[in-house]
Amino acid sequence: MSTKYFRSLIALGAMILVVGCVQTKPVPSYARAGDIVIVGLGGVERNSNGAKVLNPSELDITITDSENSVFELDALQVFKSYPDPAAVVNAEAIKGNALGLVPFDGGWFAAVLLTEVGSGTPLPLATGPATVNVSSTKLENTAFLGEGDLSSLPLEILPGQSNVDGQYLQQFASYAPTKNRFLLAPDTPADFANIGGAFLSVEYYDDSYFNNGIEPIILPSSHNPYVQLSYNVVDNGNNTGVINIIILNPQGFVPANTGTNNSSSVNDLAVTLVYFALGSSALPAVAKTQFALDTSASYYIDTSGAIIEGLTPVLTHASDL
What we know:
Immunoglobulin-like, 17 strands, 2 domains, 7-stranded mixed sheet, mainly beta, DUF4382 domain-containing protein
C-alpha cells in the first residue's frame, strides 16, 4: 500500500470519527513543512448555525511553531463530511450529550497547506510541537471538554520539508461543492414557528442550455433522513420548462436541539439546484439568465398545511453566497 493511499485512509477515517464537533487535532497529527493537513472545524449545524457555504477566504489560519514563530496559512479547500445515519455519534446526539452534538449533523473540514501564502514554498517551521489557530465570523469555537479548541490545535512538526502533493490535495478538491449551483432557501426562517415544508417552482428558459440534455437536479442541503424531498421537471414543449419541488417534514423544521428526534432543522429547508453547462455558459452571469423563481407558485406551509404568510423563498446563485 502506498504512503499516499495510507495517508488518505487515515484522513477519511478520522473525519468520520470527529464529524459534528471540533477535531482534536489536524489529520495527520504530525507533518513536515510543505505538507497538507486536514483541519476539522466543527459541526455544520452546531458550530456554524447551518451556514450554507464556508469559503477558504472566510478563514483566518495561523501556525505557531516550537520557537513561537507565527506564520499565516492558506486553506485551499473547504468541504463537508457526514457520518452514517446510524453512526454512534448520531445515537449519542439523540440521547443527549455534554458536547451538545446535533443529530445527523455534518462537519466542516479545511485542507491546509504548510507553505508560504501564495507561493507554495515550505515554511521555515521549527521542529517539535506547534499549534494551529483557526478563526472565522461564521464559526463558533465551542472548545468543550472532549473536543478540540480552534485557537490551539496541536500539530507535531517533523524534520525536513515536503514538496506540495497536488494529487493528494486534488482528492479533497473534488469534495467541494460545484460552482454550478443555486440555493433555494427562505429569507428569514428563524422568525417563524411550526414550519412544515415548502412548495417551490423554478422556471428555466432554454433547455438547449443543458449540456448533453442533462436536466438540473435538486439536492437536499443536509443529510437529515426525515426531510422528504421530491421534484419533477416539466417540459413546456417550447424549450422552456418548470422544476416543481416539494419539501416536507410533518414533525416540523425547528431550531437545532429544540424539536423531536424526527424533526429537522430550519436550515434543512434549503435545497440546491445543480445545473450542467460547459465553458462560458456555466458562468454565473449566464446561468442567472436561465433560471428564475416563480414567486406566485412558491410558498412555505406550516405543520397543518396552511400557507405561511411573510416567509419568502429566495433563489441565489452560489457566487453570491
